[in-house]
Amino acid sequence: MAHDGEPLYKSLIRDTTAYFAFVLLVTTLGPFQFGYHLSELNAPQDVLTCKKLSGESSALDRLPQCIPMNTAQFSVVTSIYTLGGFIGALGAGPSCNRYGRLLTMRLTTVSFVLGSIIETFATNIGVLCLGRLVSGLGCGATIVVVPIFIAEVAPPKEKGLFGSLTQISICLGILIAQLLGYFLSKGNLWRIILAVSGALGLVQLAGLLLVPESPRWLAEHRSPQNARRILHKLRGHHADIDAEVKAWDIDATEDDISEEQTLLSAAPGSHPAPNPKAASASINLWQAVKQPAYRPAIVAVVAVMFTQQLTGINSIVMYSVSLLSTLLPTTASLLIVAVSALNLIATIIFSPLSDKIGRKTCILISIAGMGTCAVLLALGLLFGIKILAAVATLVFVASFAFGLGPIPFILANELVGPEAVGATQSCALAANWIATFLVSQFFPIVDQALGGQGKVYFIFAGFALVSGSFIAYWVPETKGKSGVEEVWGKREARERIE
User: Which of 113, 155, 392, 494 suits 67 as a labelling partner, its CA being 20 to 30 A distant?
Assistant: First the structure.
């Protein structure tokens, strides 16, 4: 683990074993799928909807070259993905608490493969919507369980840094989708963009057969000895894990220890059946909402997740090509590839900052930057100032990467105890999907109703002002806090005990 004053790269080299890196690589393919599906229809929109026909031929010519649809219908196809995500997010919390993080991640890969197959061979709007819905189910679940899993396997001192891998993977997924869209938005080749997700789903499923269950989950579900063994493997056999295990605050009973020999001989990806005691100790979504001790955290994570979407990032991810094409007809697609690359690079560069200057500080700076750039982007589009619109778009995305991109996914693990993490994360991501639906469904409609020209970004700027003020007042800082009691203070700690 990182020592005070030690350079970050040295602590990362020491704390990151080859096996730990493999585990992170496989599990973060889930958030990659989330980002990929968000933007897979952006670049090929005109070809897909028959607005731009091509004479290109391919092996897919037996299928229709395009699917005729208007703006409202395309909005439905885009936003139906968020409905699947909402349902998946609500189900993932209880599933990963009861059956484990690993099994839940494996189930999401099935959704990725099936959804991709349906989308790739769609011949009408209904079938395409069904494929997007099924893909959304897996993405909604994976964006709940993967941040929880990473937080539980990451070295405690670098949770913020490793937690940012969720957003980095999302950004990479967006970038790859935009790159493929730039080269394959012609003829029937757009179907290849949709097929890539299924291939990646099969790769992830194979990789997950070699990934272990979360040690923290195992420790809470009657397997403390197996949890120690897996943690040793993740950290390296010479690592001192006593302090990390002690922080779990879980004692092994005689019944737990009696199962040790069986568990130690189990395969890497196996875990015990759900422990009734642990299951009863877990808090479900409805219980978390009803109990006053958890409400401040739920309000905090929901507010941050709504802010992440209602400041307008997905208007760039989903609709930027059509939005900017009137102002930049020849360079809009290329600009969006550059924007996606910037999003990825900025997220990587800024990822250590939440552990340095704090989660809340990063979020507030991020909101201020996005709100300011939303105004500048609106002015650039309204008055036809190309350079202002282009620069505002780039800085808007960089501001998102500074805080609102990566940090919301790690907050649930730091604002509640382990018994309520699944429920709180489900609630947070359900809010995120609702907000994503609002943007994906109504952005083109509202933009069109306002006469286009980017006036809708004044609305996003207003959301940034209101939500930023609320977060500054309500959300506590979690950096450097040893537990939920320290985050919320002694009064809330007593309420939980009582």
Answer: 113
